[in-house]
């Protein structure tokens, strides 16, 4: 108003509005003598910095330290004859990522929009141009193709089945153990994965399936009962496998294999007999349910015991000790394991801190305050140096496992505080409304308060994940050759004396890509979960 | 205390029997800071009856009806809901809450769930109805409160009046024996008050037992079987709406009415 009133109104045709780059420059950069000087000076400065950066990057920098040791940055001291396993992992992860992307974008008309295609093009171009990836073109481009194919398949799956998100989550969960198996090989798996997780997990699943007509799923709706069940299974597993079966085997004088066959047969027959006897197993209560479940579990356990021998489950993947693991793959393994473990731990601690039971609350508060008062590096040192002193030979966990435990212990405490902030931000009316509808406290927490609290806490939680990812660098100090540790040991090579800059720029870029990816992902998730005024 | 001693006996509606859904006797409640908020309040609510509770702010009326589903504990006296006494050590408090619906001033819809999920949540998880049945009943209820076509929206995308109607449908989905309304229209813009009151009016017409804390005089006059005035934690007067608004017995009722009419 004030600006127009002082000027006389121009008559005739309105002046053509000036557009175009020249007009823009004039208006924004050269609109007064002082600004013109400023523009010239700053422009020169920017050009100079850019010139020196580019000339460093393309002319001066000794990139050999990166290009000649690319494999070491990626997988550390992993034996080169087993690099194919890493490629399989890479392909697997990219395919799964593609499927996930496809499922997330199932409602989009065109999966490969222009920016996506450009992104693919740039990635392929880089793989071709960069000297360190050129030798592996077949594998890397193949993986890129898998990403695209996975996306197409994922979109088709997502449109067809409403269960697709659960399926892909299960896929990721299983792939973690597959990756573990591929990285570690047979022995490693035999000690950790196969014996504990594979058998118990499948035993649990099969026992459940066998008694599925008994509406056991109702039990699973109760987290506490499920936990109880799991504890029971693990106990049962050890008692069956380590105490009961061996005693029975030696007592009866049978071969172990024959004994397992016997148990499986008896178990299955008993289970069938029971299902047949009770015309309506749905109405079975308490003891009956438990009995059938137990029979199913023993039968399946026995069958599982037979499997590895009969199928030759030792696939012949040679063991690669974790001391040979390293580089980016170790960093990612540590970070993903730590994140996956610290999240449930942190949420439990946050809930524990709000509990009305004094013992649980006291423990949670003590844990959180204790861990938050200790620097991470001291926890990691404790894990690597102190814990082995306390435990007898043979029971000492692997250094990588110890590192993961240390990271988890530390992050869980911080995460708990983030989640607690989220919990406290939910108005009391929410839980009052839920309670007035007759929901009990666990259901109110699980269905109403926690989902909202986690949603508000997403930025803080992802921030914690990012710092956990970055904190893996501290493990270089305690002797693991993760990305930074590997770089430091490469730089100790006299051939690359003083070539710090390219190496650190390179791994800095890698860290940035992953951290930015996480924060970008968190923003996407936040947007997807935003239910206010679309 | 003297006030509650001289209170009139309950005035049962003519067309209902004497079956009491809520029996509150000499309820006393102190806040944690020692404030005596309910000073021996007694009230019965009979089946099919609509009771409107009025009173100045801070009179304890909201606190009083919140004791009916144990959102607020009380220290002395007794409250029975459909024959079950609400005690602080009651094991299965959820069983009582299932039978008592509650509508809040701030709606308190669950913002992370769609309207339909808001309404079906409790029937599915508490009553253990199959999802299809719960959704069918929910859609019927949403139709009854006039927002069936918005079932897949989120609460944040709706107006206050619509949200409050969803909240009513959500409570009704549990098929409660009695509905409590805690100032259901106080947080609404004036033009949305009517749509909510209309829903409540229809509900009363269908024979729902209701206890409403409200300042809506028109609603009280038209719908209530009984009007109750609370002040300072004491039940001052209990009367038919005609008598209460035209010819109140108590001096304090007269003072209160002169302020709001």
Q: Which features characterize this protein?
A:
heterodimer; A: 534 residues; mainly alpha; 4 domains; globular; disordered N terminus; B: 261 residues; alpha/beta; four-stranded antiparallel β-sheet; 10 strands
End-to-end C-alpha gap of chain B: 28 Å
Order of helices and strands of chain B: HEEEHEEHEHHHEHEHEEHH
**Share of helix of chain A, binned:** over 70%
**Low-pLDDT residue intervals, each spanning 5 or more residues of chain A:** 1-5, 212-226, 309-313
DSSP strand (E) fraction of chain A? under 5%
Query: Strand portion of chain B, in percent?
Result: 15-25%
Helix content of chain B: 25-40%
> Hey, which two chains have the biggest interface?
A-B, 23 and 28 residues
Beta strand count of chain A: 0
Structure description:
- The complex is a heterodimer of chains A (534) and B (261).
- Chain A is mostly helical and 534 residues long.
- Chain A has four domains: 33-62; 79-185; 211-317, no CATH class; 322-529, Orthogonal Bundle (MetI-like fold), CATH 1.10.3720.
- Chain A contains 21 helices and no strands.
- In chain A, helix 14 packs across helix 17 (399-425) and helix 18 packs antiparallel against helix 19 (441-471).
- Chain A starts with a helix and ends in a 5-residue tail after the last helix.
- Chain B is an alpha/beta fold and 261 residues long.
- Chain B is 36% helix and 23% strand.
- Chain B is built from ten helices and ten strands.
- Chain B has helices at residues 2-5, 61-66, 93-99, 115-125, 131-144, 160-172, 190-205, 217-223, 241-246, 251-260; strands at 20-30, 36-46, 50-54, 76-81, 84-85, 100-103, 178-182, 209-213, 226-231, 234-239.
- The radius of gyration of chain B is 18 Å and the shape is globular.
- The two termini of chain B are 28 Å apart.
- Mean pLDDT of chain B is 89; it is low at 1-16.
- The A-B interface holds A 427, 429-430, 432-440, 443, 447-448, 451-452, 455, 529, 531-534 and B 69, 71, 94-95, 97-98, 100-102, 104, 106, 108-112, 121-122, 125-126, 154-157, 167, 170-171, 174.
